[in-house]
Amino acid sequence: MCGSGWGRSHISVERVAINIDDARIADNEGNKPTDKPIFFDGENAYFSNLPIKEIVKGIKEVGIPGEISNSAGTFVCNHLLYGLLYYIQRDFKKTLGGFIHVPYLPEQVVEKKNMPSMSLDNIVKTLEKTIEVAIQKYQ
What we know:
The protein is an alpha/beta fold.
């Protein structure tokens, strides 16, 4: 999975999701959960089973800035990653899963001063490289 990360200048490959929703702003439906577990029967955290270090290395090899991120936050992106990893752990153990934060597109930051962005072409290149690395690792 992937989503845009406010203020990020690098492609950020997430390492871990935590079992908490703690939003500082409301979501699209107006919900603003505070210190709420995502799944009451879930572990405190789940780690991505993607080869995150190899992915970051591959991203950098194609000339795109990449990094490992140790926090997907406590809002929507973390919630999605946690849910995915929860179901993988519970029901789909042979499935790979993870989350990548990408910078905003240039057109998203036109009115935002000093906000990093990345072209769609580079984001697509990153996602293609991620899939390639994961397939090579687990063939």
